[in-house]
Amino acid sequence: MTTTDPTTRGAKKTPGRPVTQPRLGPVGWARWAWRQLTSMKTALFLLLLLAIGAVPGSMFPQRSLDPSQTAAWIQRHPEAGPVLDRFYAFDVYSSPWFSAIYLLLFTSLVGCIVPRTLTLARQLRGRPPRTPRRLERLDAHDALVVRDEDVPAALDAAASALRRRRYRMARHDDQTISAESGYVKEIGNLAFHGSLLTLIVGLAIGHLYGWRADIVVPEGESFVSTVTRYDTWAPGPLVDESSLTPFELTVDQMSARFEEDHQSQIGMPRAFSAEVTYADRLGGATKKDTVQVNHPLELDESTVFLLGNGYAPVVTVKDDAGRVIYRGATPFLAQDGSYRSTGAIKVGAAQPEQLGFVGLFLPTAVVDDTNGPISIFPDLRNPALAMSLYEGELFPQGGAQSVFSIDTEAMTPVAPDDDSEDIARLWLQPGETAQLPGDRGSITFDRVDRFAGFAVRHDPGKGLVLGSSVVALLGLITSLTLRRRRVFARVVPAGDGRSVLHLGAMTKGDDDRLARVVSDLADQLGSSFDDEGDRTPASVGESRTS
Length: 546
Known about the structure:
4 domains, disordered C terminus, TATA-Binding Protein, 24 strands, 31% strand, disordered N terminus, alpha+beta
């Protein structure tokens, strides 16, 4: 049997012979890849992937936020820690794989938005399409019967009614009208997607050029916002630390109010506020303000949030000769709602060994037979310090360390003079002094101050993020509530000096009000001739006869 070349026009497929598929080539594959990347399905998938990629950032400590906690986590997990670190589990938001998802999503949104914007611009510059011949085949249809001499007036009335409803109008001849509305829906859709794009840009600006820091400041003390003064410091990759403008801040008073009346809510926090004196820059004019929860202090280049509060016992440590080797307010970190707080007093000037006091501060101290020392109320009713004493090297190998804890593995417990216990335990209330074992000196609990925990943030992209979020919300509401509609009118001669004015409408997507739009327009046109008595409305889908 004779066969023909399957590439020839009209060729018949020979049984058993494979079909030759066309080859795309490099340009074809590039076009295919670009269309896949810029599709809405891919953009949604990348958004989901970005959300999944951020999960490890909330599961594991991040090196940019707390290097000491990250190092401690890796040390506690010697097998899993290095493996996770190799995959950037502790640097999620600056990792290559997270950045790749971020950039792909950005590219996908750009490739999706730009062509649709150009298409919308062409549509807005153009005229509505010509009126179809058979309007009764559209999704919604109605009709009126008018006299031939009233046809121009009827078309003018229809055009005026559609203009009042903000339709874009076009009259291609003397017998038809084309109108369309709902382009604001597409504008809202594009605004939503464009806002996602600017939101990503704003987040990127904040990540690259922003910085954040935390600091604990006891009452009556001041700090200058230099990098070395902060307890934690997390700069963006492009932050120039030398270009920061330092400001001054003094905590005049830290106030806290707790519930005392309602039995079921005793001890619940009711209000926190810090009275501060500040200057936007060193040597500048000082001002006073109150920093509260959800009421931050706005400075020229940063924002100061009240992130936490607690107690800072003021202690004085002297050596065996009576010289003061440590004096100051030491913050203790609250562990529960009753402000049972843990902390550490580090006396680096002690000789011959450095001393470290580790223990609890209890605002309303009670010794429980089962749980030991506890606090039963968060306010200062019966304050006490319960501490244990260690000696040795406070900062082994110069590593970073939390202000609230001591690495006791590098230190030796100090036993009491009578060797009754393995470690010396101290119980002090305000005004009391205890002698340290082995002629190491003494410690005095002077008083209790409060401290304020501040979070200082500089985010140059926050304005863009806020504006993008608002525009995205408005665009989403617009795209979900408005409908894209086209309404047409055509006059068809019916003989005997009469014509039929057909009205029809179509929509893009679902629109349960489309038939109502056409019937309302027909009712309005019909009622305009009621005084003459020769034009009466008809039901939807039927001719309106006089």
